[in-house]
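Lecture 7 notes: from sequence to structure.
We start with the chain below.
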Amino acid sequence: MKKSFITLTAICALFSFSASAGSIAVLDVEKIVKESTAMRDIQGKVTKKQDEYQKDVTKKQKELEAEQKKLEGKKDLLAKEAFEKEMKKFEGKVDDLKTFVDKKQNSLKKASMDSMSKVNDKIKDIIAEISKEKDIDLIVPTSQTLFYKDEMDISAEVLKRLNKKITKVDVKFE
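Predicted structure tokens for the same chain:
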């Protein structure tokens, strides 16, 4: 009951705002992220680096699996203390691999977020330009609207300008 009252209040506030506002537009953020040349460039670079990291991880995993089989073969040949010492060294290598994987995943995530942030800044600039040119007082994401007229959608214009301003982004991996 409370939630529907809050939603109804928000809708009423939006309608009262729109009565005094110059104009309202909508923006399909998902479309821009999916279709912009810059975002595709970032995704391609991140995917390529992810594939490189995966090859390294797979190689190290195979080496550890071979070492584990060797170690299991020594179990009956080594004294208990010597075997436990060897197992501890092996477990350290497994932990090192886990740390390596975490570090590489964090590097991918950070590089992706930093690069997308640069594109988002350009998008904000473009939105500000368009809102000034068209005297738009409010821009709402299409995902947050129930209905809008096609002429209210500025997504194509934002995408067109974005693709003119930025097509490639420097993606920095640690």
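Points to note: The chain has a mean pLDDT of 88. The beta strands are 24-27, 138-141.
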